[in-house]
Amino acid sequence: MSLEQVFASRTSQMKASEIRELLKLLEQPGILSFAGGIPDPNLFPAEAFSEAYARALSPENQAVALQYSVSEGYLPLRRWLVGQMERMGVPCDVDNILITSGSQQALDYLGKLFLNAGDTALVEGPTYMGALGAFRAYEPRFDRLSVNGNRPAQDYADAAQAAGGKVKFAYLTPDFANPTGKTMDLRGRESVLDLTEALDVASIEDAAYQALRYDGDSVPPILALEVARKGDLEACRTIYCGSFSKTLTPGLRVGWVVAAKPVIRQLVLTKQASDLHSPTINQIVVHEVAARMFESHVGTLRQSYGARRDAMLAALEKHMPEGVEWTRPEGGMFVWMTLPKNMDGASLLAEALRSEMVAFVPGSAFFADGAGANTLRLNFSSPTVEQIDEGMLRLGRVLRGALT
Amino acid sequence: MSLEQVFASRTSQMKASEIRELLKLLEQPGILSFAGGIPDPNLFPAEAFSEAYARALSPENQAVALQYSVSEGYLPLRRWLVGQMERMGVPCDVDNILITSGSQQALDYLGKLFLNAGDTALVEGPTYMGALGAFRAYEPRFDRLSVNGNRPAQDYADAAQAAGGKVKFAYLTPDFANPTGKTMDLRGRESVLDLTEALDVASIEDAAYQALRYDGDSVPPILALEVARKGDLEACRTIYCGSFSKTLTPGLRVGWVVAAKPVIRQLVLTKQASDLHSPTINQIVVHEVAARMFESHVGTLRQSYGARRDAMLAALEKHMPEGVEWTRPEGGMFVWMTLPKNMDGASLLAEALRSEMVAFVPGSAFFADGAGANTLRLNFSSPTVEQIDEGMLRLGRVLRGALT
């Protein structure tokens, strides 16, 4: 007996990621790891959550908190998000918002909403590994998005048609991207809008890290730029995916999607059919904690993560040999490193673990097209400032060794 | 601009359910509703949850409770479920279990795992509406499952092939089914195993209501029967979906799947790509509350819901006119009523709302093939015993009026 023979064809694209398997090993004690991508648990607003859960489960509230609720999401949380989006230049109402179980679920639903097998998803190279994973379940073709506007729309459309489908969307992480840490400038954002408009397709703006800016001026969300162009969210093709995972907590799995109402309506049906709704009580407590302290808590995070970003950039200056380059992110959780062309991130990891017990993520996993062998991702949100300096010292030694 | 033009073809099958839209109206004050399918919130073990959340968020536990966790699910909860499954005749280990966000998510994942567009899902008529919704996203064909074994396997296979696909699974709710309240006997269960074995496909056992038995002898799960046949879960084709939604609380969205390891491994990948993991803290508190009081709490539910079931059956005897038939469920939350052939449940509902302010769900929504116009579903877990008697009195009056 083997049920594998009756698995759907999509499962052939849904393989265990070698990188994810590897990451499990990297979190072992004794290893100084820059491989994770998770918030520092010491910075969770745990006391506020504890109070909020107690209140949600008080005799007058418990019947609601523990009961089924609507697929659209908890109304007071959606109302609070309306205010947040408005401050970002996106006037909307509650019917433009769906609560999801983290922004990962939004990516799954958007793949489900748009992709027939063989359709094309435009993605950056590198891009968020989890987005590639979510989309792959719908058997797409990936094409590399060139953000500077120097590849004509017709060229994307022709390539998609030749592959037997259509371009359906461009997926972007414009702010402090995972894995590069880079932020897309205003011109880049406008060029994405031009492209998706010329193709008449959606743009998916993954804003998971957007609140975590440590310096520099914030750039408006792509959705805000499109609202400014069109005057009305209902005329916009951009779908904004937000998350509380990097700001308040990832463990409660609360994110949201903002889009024109026909898109939200179809996503609500998708959610109804896939898990009915996100946990009621978690939405209630996230609303309470966000309403009470979102801005001040994000301020705390910015200070703490900003200091670690500074420490990492300083340590890289101090310890890295010539020929190695890295990004200088204005926010987020990652620095992206480019090694000399002939070097291989995966081999380097093996060596780094063996000789220095230091870990990172080889960069090729973030490319849909297998590029990026000579790249790697470093996380600075989990380690302390001291660990960062020690870790970069060790990584520098590994690199020096490999370069000689 | 209309993004609908680039929606995937599957969205044409994912329409808003008229019934679900209707149900929203039915929960208005003043209406005596038997339309819902939700637990009585007065029976939630809210105090135990409150204590468990407080403990999960204590200084020594909060870093884990609020952090990302593994896609497989919280290990102590999976261990506890190993014990539960063993008591039901299904020896397994933690790698045979995936935690899902309610059993609804398991149904979505199983659709994703098995169904290519055009493949056939065998479902009962009537069956759980949410299963039809979950599977429809993968563009299947539905065929009516005949449980008594009098339709040969080859006939199902031929029909599936003629429709351009393959039979991939049979989906069943063997215990106190939603909507019928019926329980499949041992012979029915064995015949399902014979059929899925002859077809060499999966059987999906949705056990959402299994713990809620009020009288009669329990029948072993289909998976237990298959383990007894084969001697080893790894040789089994049955996939068991459990849920805490009807026993502890639906608002936390915690369910589980038990199956052979290759199936669980692929479902873990599916979960990783779709929402990373179910909320960490909810899994922790469900484990604590289940370990502390699952059996005693289910005992309380059985008493309370059993009394309401008794009240509904007594009220139906008292108030229903001749020509109307109904099921006598041994558990669960529903009684299924069959009206004379020429009557229509939807028209009756309109009349019942107008003249008596009493509500139920017309039965046709539970059929994949549009049958069942003369059926309806009555819920007895939400209303009180007094409301049940009053409601059946009113419904009896409506039916008498419609029958004259």
Automatic annotation (TrEMBL), chains A, B:
<dbReference type="GO" id="GO:0008483">
    <property type="term" value="F:transaminase activity"/>
</dbReference>
<comment type="subunit">
    <text>Homodimer.</text>
</comment>
<dbReference type="GO" id="GO:1901605">
    <property type="term" value="P:alpha-amino acid metabolic process"/>
</dbReference>
<dbReference type="InterPro" id="IPR015422">
    <property type="entry name" value="PyrdxlP-dep_Trfase_small"/>
</dbReference>
<keyword id="KW-0032">Aminotransferase</keyword>
<dbReference type="InterPro" id="IPR050859">
    <property type="entry name" value="Class-I_PLP-dep_aminotransf"/>
</dbReference>
<protein>
    <recommendedName>
        <fullName>Aminotransferase class I/classII large domain-containing protein</fullName>
    </recommendedName>
</protein>
<feature type="domain" description="Aminotransferase class I/classII large">
    <location>
        <begin position="87"/>
        <end position="392"/>
    </location>
</feature>
<keyword id="KW-0663">Pyridoxal phosphate</keyword>
<dbReference type="InterPro" id="IPR015421">
    <property type="entry name" value="PyrdxlP-dep_Trfase_major"/>
</dbReference>
<dbReference type="InterPro" id="IPR004839">
    <property type="entry name" value="Aminotransferase_I/II_large"/>
</dbReference>
<comment type="similarity">
    <text>Belongs to the class-I pyridoxal-phosphate-dependent aminotransferase family.</text>
</comment>
<dbReference type="GO" id="GO:0030170">
    <property type="term" value="F:pyridoxal phosphate binding"/>
</dbReference>
<dbReference type="Pfam" id="PF00155">
    <property type="entry name" value="Aminotran_1_2"/>
</dbReference>
<keyword id="KW-0808">Transferase</keyword>
<dbReference type="InterPro" id="IPR015424">
    <property type="entry name" value="PyrdxlP-dep_Trfase"/>
</dbReference>
